[in-house]
Amino acid sequence: MNYDKLLNISVELGCRLMSSGAEIYRVEESVRRLLQAYGLDSPEVFAIPNCVIVSIATPEGHPITRMRRIAGHGTDIELLERCNDLCRRLCVQTPPLEEAQGLLDALSGRSYAPWQVLLGYGIAPAFFSPLFGGGVGDTLSALMGGLAVGFCLLYAGRFIGSNSFFRTAICSAVASLVSLLLVRLGLGRSVDTVTISVLMVLVPGVALTNAMREIMAGDIISGLSRAADSILTAAAIAIGTAVGLAIGGLF
User: N or C: which end of the chain has fewer CB within 10 A?
Assistant: First the structure.
């Protein structure tokens, strides 16, 4: 048995799970079950939102450890389901490591064209607007505001940087400015309704939910980390919105 290759496969699968938005306990349990399926009795797995550490001991007693740092990631439910399915398949069938590596390399999420992503950013606020009491004009304004935020995220990344706090703050400022402008032009009726509808695409709802689930599951470090990230994102939204409205008010 090539334990180095087995460890690399298990760590890579854990990183794929984490990158697609899996909970900490799901990542740790999946990696542990995979290693146990290939004959390792007591593998040690530790995961936090941006790191996975796996340690095993070979039958000869030689310890091997792998650590992988994970870059910023979001949520991809379809890729998460594929990762779960592959993990179950590997645990049941335990194919040769070369075949397992090939199956893992072929694992990928669905990719969307930029116009489809941009359209999603526009449609989501348009659906939120009626929920907040907006009329037809507010819905159209929210649609245009969502398109502006989507354009900012997709095409202005090299100008606004990769830092999530500043990127969220700038997008929030753009959302509030566009909302204020459209209301002043007479298309929308309520600045508050249009603004909050557009900002919903930036709210870290899934991240905060996962943080609470992990705290209740006992993963305190991971839960606090995700909660802190969600709070910082919410602060960036508030700061960016206030700055955007203040700039709009000057003109």
Answer: C
